[in-house]
Amino acid sequence: MKLSRLASIAAVFVCALAVASCANTVRGVKRDLNNTANAVQE
Q1: pTM for this one?
Q2: How far is CA 1 from the centre of its chain?
Q3: How far, in whole angstroms, is CA 19 from its chain's centroid?
């Protein structure tokens, strides 16, 4: 029972890390697109 609780906590932690890394990637792509649009306009 203790092992399954530890596994559940570890799974939640891994999911939180995955969501955080995806958010950073999306933010980076948005910046790249904005930079590209600015370069094309200039």
Answers
A1: 0.53
A2: 31
A3: 4
Distance between CA atoms of residues 24 and 29, nearest Å: 9
CA dist., res. 2 & res. 16, Å (int): 21
CA 41 to chain centre: 30
Q: Supply the DSSP string of 6-29, one letter for each residue.
A: HHHHHHHHHHHHHHHHHHHHHHHH
- 6-21 tens-digit pLDDT: 899 999 999 988 888 8
- Rounded distance, CA 5 to CA 13, Å? 12
